[in-house]
Design a protein that fits this description.
The strands form four sheets. The protein has a six-stranded mixed sheet, sandwiched between helices. Strands 10-7-11 form a three-stranded antiparallel sheet. It is built from 18 helices and 13 strands. The protein is globular and about 70 Å long. With 462 residues, the chain is of the alpha/beta class. This is ABC transporter substrate-binding protein.
Length: 462
């Protein structure tokens, strides 16, 4: 953790983990004419919405899942998901679910390619940022019939529900949610005499002034601050929220119609961050993405990270324990001590594959995963965050850390990830941040250029 330690990457990027869907047996045709006749028959059946239903009346659907559910022990990705499928199929023998696990590195491109090729899955477990973009491109089945009055009243969170919509229709069915925040090393703070700079009461809010004082004490004691990570898009929501909170800026206007990060608060924040990098309070993260920033924190090389969540805390708990580090989760510091937090929403969508039977079977499967009396609460806990349904109650009773994470829901800010062109905007974010911290552009000019390009991305997507 000391300044003389190297900040080299601890490990190479993990290779993609993709398991095949599996295909049917090869068919042979007696003659070319027979083959053409069979193809015509299949085409006609598909047009009537019967494709995907076997001769035995079993509807087959495919579920693609990012590694969001925690696995038991050292079980590989997909093990727990298969348990869900087995339980569902036991209650619904007329539906067969095929599972394919995808990773966050290659998964998004795989989905896009499959959409274009017409081979995409029926059910996807993901987040609104990607799901709503698929809806905006007309690729999804509307799920309005699943958003009953009883369900929306149970969720009782307008911002979260709006994150699941495109226009007037719902396209993502949510299961769990939690705020993104940051984390500090208690070990480093204690050794640097900086524990008095943070707040451990209630929802632990604190100010930008307190944050700067903490970094000063850490630096004087020889500890490295967190990185201003900006090598790519990975985890970029964390560093954006950190920037906007420092001096009451915002990524977009409240109506989520235009980008506004070049406001007075945004310029002041970027100016201050450049100053912190120059004086060694924070580290130039041009070579790091969000995951690599977290790697440095859990390895003990840095004293804090601006990318944290209860899910990350759960996933990295073993490494933190091995390194003897106690992480303290905190909301982002803000000038007035009232943060505005971005948040994760986990949920499902159904791709429109032109087959009504598969669409209905997919919705039935999603309802089971989210709402089954036994499996619903269990599945929420496996996402390491909180149920969107208030009726599920406290699934982490007695866990003080989870009680803190739950308290942050009151600070949810407007969910801008569903704005048209969001994916394109992200490509402009990290080059702008690099230009500022490397001294290649003044904060105001860099932010003006970023906002102009980001606003054009909205137009391009419409």
């Amino acid at each position: 953790m000391k300044k003389m330690l190297s900040l080299g990457l601890a490990a190479a990027m993990t290779a993609s983990m993709l398991t095949g869907c599996g295909g049917g047996d090869k068919q042979t045709a007696g003659t070319q004419a027979d083959t053409k006749a069979e193809e015509a028959k299949n085409t006609e059946a598909a047009s009537k919405g019967s494709e995907g239903t076997s001769a035995e009346g079993v509807t087959e659907i495919t579920w693609w899942a990012f590694p969001t559910f925690a696995q038991d022990g050292n079980n590989p990705a997909g093990t727990y998901e298969q348990e869900i499928i087995d339980a569902f199929e036991a209650k619904n023998p007329d539906i067969k679910v095929k599972l394919e696990t995808i990773d966050f590195t290659s998964g998004p491109e795989k989905i896009t390619a499959a959409i274009e090729a017409g081979t995409v899955c029926d059910v996807l477990f993901d987040a609104p940022g990607r799901i709503i973009s698929y809806a905006q491109n007309g690729k999804l089945v509307a799920l309005d019939d699943m958003f009953t009055d009883e369900f929306t009243k149970d969720v009782d969170n307008e911002a979260l529900l709006n994150a699941c919509k495109s226009g007037d229709s719902y396209y993502m069915y949510p299961i769990s949610s939690a705020a993104f925040c940051m984390a500090v090393s208690k070990n480093a703070l204690e050794e640097a005499g900086a524990m008095d700079c943070i707040n451990l009461e209630g929802d632990r809010t604190w100010t930008t002034e307190q944050f700067e004082e903490m970094m000063k004490k850490l630096s004087e004691a020889g500890f490295m601050g967190g990185t201003v990570y900006c090598s790519g898009q990975g985890g970029d929501q964390g560093i954006r929220a950190f920037v906007t909170n420092l001096y009451d800026s915002s990524v977009t206007d409240p109506e989520i119609t235009t980008y506004t990060l070049n406001d007075e608060g945004g310029v002041k924040a970027m100016t201050k961050i450049k100053e912190w990098v120059d004086n060694g309070y924070m580290l130039n993260g041009s070579a790091y993405n969000g995951g690599e920033d977290v790697d440095q924190f859990v390895a003990g090389n840095t004293a804090f990270t601006t990318l944290w969540s209860p899910g990350l805390a759960s996933q990295r708990a073993e490494t933190l324990n091995e390194n003897g580090i106690e992480a303290i989760a905190l909301p982002f510091p803000s000038e007035d001590g009232k943060p505005a937090l971005e948040y994760l929403v986990n949920g499902f969508c159904v791709f429109d594959n032109g087959d009504e039977a598969r669409a209905e079977a997919s919705k039935k499967f999603i309802d089971f995963v989210c709402n089954d009396e036994e499996w619903g609460p269990k599945n929420v806990v496996k996402t390491s965050v909180f149920p969107v349904r208030q009726s599920m109650g406290d699934l982490y009773e007695g866990d003080e850390d989870m009680a803190f994470y739950a308290s942050l829901s009151k600070y949810y800010s407007p969910y801008y990830n569903t704005i048209p062109g969001f994916a394109e905007m992200r490509t402009y974010w990290f080059p702008m941040l690099q230009a500022v911290i490397n001294g290649d552009a003044e904060p105001k000019a860099a932010l003006d250029d970023f906002v102009a390009k980001a606003n054009q991305s909205i137009i391009n997507a419409q």
